[in-house]
């Protein structure tokens, strides 16, 4: 079972998320928190696999809690819950080690898929918002930042660049495999190699790097 902690300051939101997640036979919501302080304490006590963490909360916000969770329970994966109105916070969340993010209006099946992906050690970027959010986050990039990103990508071979470009579009391993006529296992091998060469912690960081470099434009 995937042990999940749901963190949101709105009880109705927590109840809705819990109802969705417990409909899956492999997910168990073991605790709920209303702010970052509670989330940190419960994550330590309950030994959860995945924390769903809202950004905007009183007391301790989600971004502050994320940094503390990554420091104190590094094996616990953290998924950020967000809205388009909070895009300015998303880049910070991803670069600080979040396993990805979900929009609060995501479909129930997407929420379950994201939790399963996070528990499996994969990063999850909401497919319906990937291009919009990544473009927004990188729209103000400087020429220096773009040049630095392009230099990092010089480490990659041609096929690796093709796979990285699809990561930048938010494609899953299976979808990228279909696009490139590869097996999902082969794409997964390429992704692991790309993350190692680029010194990226997860595929979301690699996707942002691809967008910085203008890969796929």
Tell me the strand percentage band. Answer: 5-15%
Distance between the termini: 41 Å
What do the pLDDT scores average to? Answer: 86
Specify the number of helices.
11
Order of strands, main sheet, comes to 2-1-3-4-5-6
What is the strand tally?
Answer: 6
**Percent range for helical residues?**
40-55%
Question: Helix-strand pattern, N to C?
Answer: EHEHEHEHEHEHHHHHH
> What general form does the structure show?
globular
Question: Taking Cα atoms only, what radius of gyration do you get, to the nearest Å?
Answer: 17 Å
Class by alpha and beta content:
alpha/beta
Low-confidence stretches: none
- What is the makeup of the main sheet? 6 strands, parallel
Keywords: DNA-binding, Phosphoprotein, Transcription, Transcription regulation
Organism: Streptomyces asiaticus subsp. ignotus
Protein name: Response regulator transcription factor
Offer a quick outline of the entry.
By secondary structure, the protein is α/β, with parallel strands linked by helices. Helix content is 54%, strand content 14%. It contains eleven helices and six strands.
């Amino acid at each position: 079972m995937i042990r999940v902690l749901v963190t949101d300051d709105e009880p109705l939101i927590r109840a809705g998320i819990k109802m969705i997640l417990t409909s899956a036979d492999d997910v168990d919501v073991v605790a709920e928190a209303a702010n970052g302080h509670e989330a940190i304490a419960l994550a330590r006590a309950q030994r959860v696999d995945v924390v769903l963490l809202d950004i905007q909360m009183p007391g301790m916000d989600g971004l502050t809690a994320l940094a503390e969770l990554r420091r104190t329970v590094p094996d616990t994966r953290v998924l950020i819950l967000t809205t388009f109105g909070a895009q300015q916070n998303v880049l910070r969340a991803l670069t600080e080690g979040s396993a990805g993010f979900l929009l609060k209006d995501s479909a129930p099946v997407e929420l379950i898929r994201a939790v399963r992906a996070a528990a499996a050690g994969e990063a999850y970027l909401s497919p319906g918002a990937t291009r919009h959010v990544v473009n927004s986050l990188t729209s103000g990039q400087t020429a220096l930042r773009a040049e630095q990103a392009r230099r990092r990508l010089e480490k990659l071979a041609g096929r690796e660049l093709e796979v990285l470009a699809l990561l930048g579009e938010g494609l899953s391993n299976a979808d990228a495999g279909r696009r490139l006529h590869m097996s999902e296992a082969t794409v997964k091998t390429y992704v692991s190699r790309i993350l190692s060469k680029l010194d990226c912690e997860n595929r979301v960081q690699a996707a942002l790097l691809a967008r910085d470099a203008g890969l796929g434009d």
